[in-house]
Design goal:
Length: 364
């Protein structure tokens, strides 16, 4: 027999939930559980039966199997890992079911919610209160069976505690962000707003878990994630960026302007009020053009830009690019070199600003 660890669910979810996840291998809508072949020397839970002391309404179960084990003490860690992995899988399936149900209740359709994102939230929360309830070694098949169990009530309490902690943390971070923004310190406010978004997203996802395992509504997040994302966008829009380029080339300057606006920031212009928070300063150097061996011209341009935080007078990013372009005339070669520099400098500036200002990407 080939050595290896595997696991199989024995959780026995209600049929209505299972039918929402027809593609899942946890169970079929008929209610018939996949049966694990095991020798009679081991109890029924090794064959997919639920022990009466662990009723479905009160417990979540995971089964791990390790084959080709001749000394059961050496397979305990692998068996435990397989059982806990199955337990985490059951939690993800349960939360996915809840998301589908909630989506149907709100929209009458199963779409509109990212199941993958929410079901990968804190599956390890289930493992914090899990315990190994039983083991059975079958010498005939050299298989070690391991049963992991977690009480749903205990799991719900742990998740509710995480929700409370997340709400307190998020509320504090949001308050700091608003206070700094009120003082005109938008860049300083951004990290706190991003932390608030992370907390709001986690609390919202954990709420799905509470409903899934207890059937009860969870406390609402201190603020909806969509509202925090909107506030983050407002902070970036209120962050003014001043641009100073020596020997500016129109193609390069245009690419930098687009990168600033694409990042959600605001180009500072004379007379528009407010104080610039960032400065993009640099130069574009013409490195000259030369005729190649085949008669065409090749021109080279060098662009150097520093991203400076004006509140601290510190350079936070440096962008340095050199590109070339060819053409039948010197003017054509220079134009193509400028286009090449612009094509690379724009994305570089955008990434640099996102590292300072953040982006709309959802935190993990």
């Amino acid at each position: 027999m080939k050595s290896g660890a595997s696991h199989l669910s024995v959780s026995g979810w209600p049929r209505a939930v299972a039918c929402l996840l027809a593609a899942s291998s946890v169970c079929a809508c008929s209610g018939v559980r996949p049966v694990v072949k095991a020798e009679p020397s081991c109890p029924g839970w090794t064959r997919g039966e639920r022990p009466p002391e662990y009723p479905e309404k009160r417990t979540l179960m995971g089964l791990g199997m390790v084959g080709n084990v001749w000394d059961p003490t050496k397979g305990e860690e692998a068996g435990k890992a397989a059982a806990l992995a199955d337990l985490a899988k059951q939690l993800r399936v349960t939360v996915a079911s809840e998301i589908h149900v909630a989506s149907w209740e709100k929209t009458g359709a199963g779409g509109g919610t990212s199941v993958d994102e929410a079901t990968t939230l804190k599956a390890n929360v289930a493992l914090q209160g899990a315990r190994i309830a039983s083991r059975c070694f079958d010498p005939g098949s050299a298989t070690l069976y391991t049963l992991a169990v977690v009480e749903l009530a205990d799991l719900a309490r742990r998740v509710l505690a995480d929700i409370q902690e997340g709400n307190e943390s998020g509320h504090k971070e949001m308050g700091l962000a608003r206070q700094l923004a009120a003082d005109g310190k938008h860049i300083e406010a951004l990290p706190h707003a991003r932390a608030a978004l992370a907390a709001a997203s986690e609390v919202s996802q954990l709420g799905q878990m509470v409903r899934a395992v207890s059937g009860e509504a969870a406390p609402r997040p201190f603020q909806e994630p969509s509202e925090v994302k909107t506030y983050l966008a407002e902070l970036r829009a209120n962050t003014r960026v001043r641009l100073t380029l020596d020997r500016s080339v129109p193609e390069v300057e245009g690419a930098v302007f687009r990168a600033v606006t694409d990042s959600g920031a605001h180009i500072a212009r004379d007379g528009d009020g407010g104080t610039a928070a960032l400065l993009l300063r640099g130069r574009v150097d013409d490195l000259g053009a030369a005729r190649s061996s085949i008669g065409a011209f090749v021109a080279r341009l060098h662009a150097f830009i520093e991203v400076v935080r004006l509140d601290t007078s510190s350079v936070v990013e440096i962008i340095d690019r050199t590109d070339s372009g060819g053409g039948r005339t010197q003017s054509e070669a220079q134009s193509r070199a400028a286009a090449a520099v612009a094509a690379t400098i724009g994305p570089d500036v955008r990434k640099a600003l996102e590292r300072v200002l953040g982006s709309d990407a959802q935190p993990k």
